[in-house]
Structure formats: C-alpha cells, structure tokens
Amino acid sequence: MGCGETLFLGSGGYVTCSLIDCPRPDAVSTVLNGRETEHVVWIEGLTATIRHPLREWTDDAQLSCDLNRHLADLDASLLSPGKYRMMRDGERWTWQRIDGEAT
Q: Does any domain span residue 85?
C-alpha cells in the first residue's frame, strides 16, 4: 500500500499507518499478528493459490519454495477443492484440510 515513512507505533504496540487516506492503516499489525506459521493452499477447480508463511517473505524465498513445484507436479484433477495447511515432513508435504477454520 506504499506505507513506510507513514508507519508509527500506536497505542498497545500496534504498527499503524498515519496517512489519512490509507485504506488499511492496520495492515502491518494484521500481518504481524497472524497466527498461521505454515503454508496455506486454496484449491479451486484446476487452480491452486499459496499463502507462504512470513519466514519466506524475506529475500524472496517464496519464489524458490519447493511447494510451488510440488503443486505444479500434481494432477490437479485429483485435488479436492478447499483450504489446506501444508506442512513439511522430511521430504514430503503433508496436507491438512482447514476449511472453516480461521487462520
């Protein structure tokens, strides 16, 4: 959203944007307060969308995440639509369905 110099530490320790017209002044705090620490994947039809955990947001690590390749190698027609938590178990990815769960 272009924040940066407009960010300040507000009451209660929440990072807030001071720009009057900011559409989401609480966006940084919302991201930082997220409780999900694993990858989350939404399957819809033949499309998979990945939300990478914060630890991969530095140095563009999400671009080289092997979950991207793992999903690309799967037969998309066999995937059940829904929301999944993806956890690394050694060399394998483990799927955990989380539809309806707040993350």
A: yes
